[in-house]
Amino acid sequence: MSRDVCLAGLAYELGDQRPVAELRGASDPVALDLLCANGIRHYRRSEQPAGRLAAASLVKSIALWGGDPRDIDLVLYCSESLGPVEKASIRFGALCRDYGLGDVPVVGVSLSGCANLIPGLRYARALLRAEGLRNVAVVTADTCLDESRRIADWDLAVLSDGAASCIVSTEPSAPGVRLLGVGHAANPRLRDLDRRGQRPRILLMIANGVRRALEAALQDAAVDLAAIGRLVSTNTRRDAMEFFARHVGLGAAAAFTGTLDGVSHCYSSDVLINILASAGAAPGPGPFAALSLGPDSWGALVLQDV
Fold first, then answer.
1. Which of 46, 144, 197, 208 would suit a FRET pair with 229, their CA atoms being 20 to 30 Å apart?
2. pLDDT at position 96, please?
3. Architecture of the domain defined by 176-305
4. In CATH, 6-169 is 3.40.47.10
5. 159: which DSSP letter?
6. Residue 134 phi/psi, 5° resolution?
7. Distance in angstroms (rounded) separating the CA atoms of residues 277 and 125
8. Which residues partner with 255 through β-bridges?
9. pTM greater than 0.90 (yes/no)
């Protein structure tokens, strides 16, 4: 039986705001000028590991949600940084217990890059519907572990340190957004292509993958593209965000870019951050879409404000 699923208690935790200009000595100045011209003037840097940022965001989510932490059945931790070094340093499960989650199981979700949030939400919804779980906390967090790689491939973004979270529930006790549809697409063949020499081909494959993900989410939600009132997505450069908005058929003006200047690209956390930041940006109560974009894995959501 279908059950309405909501995302409640949306929250985030970011590193300190830093000017992009401070990266000039270690980066190509032409790339930095291009990024700044496309709306990126600051990024976020934290001395804390990703797990601590995730735990701090989760505390905020639980407080905003208003429910009892003991009613959370599972925590899905979505991150690119699930290797032994990161796990040993953050002890995310122990941090969750420290913040009142008792012995709630923690499951890691990775391998989808900056689209890691999408499988996390997809699994959370499936667990609520199929297994009768009451509430699943979804947390996504990453930090740039190599300062020399703050500028993302193809000068598309500046990597920021941050985390975002929400409580996925069938009975939210606080306002949030309804999760109407989820779509996920991938193309592992991209990993075998020369990212410099085959850039046009790669961009076309990515764009088609993004469109497939949104089409799947719209079909899952039984919503027409024409009904979508706004679009939030992974933060890259403004021109890239507008390109994807056009490619999926919504037009460049639909792309929300309100956090580019102050946040830049917080990996998979961007989508939850932008859902919060864009609240009220649409002219009416209709559904809106979100794109979560990795290098070879792409996800989409169809949502509606509660």
1. 208
2. 80
3. 3-Layer(aba) Sandwich (3.40)
4. yes
5. B
6. -90, -50
7. 23
8. 231
9. yes
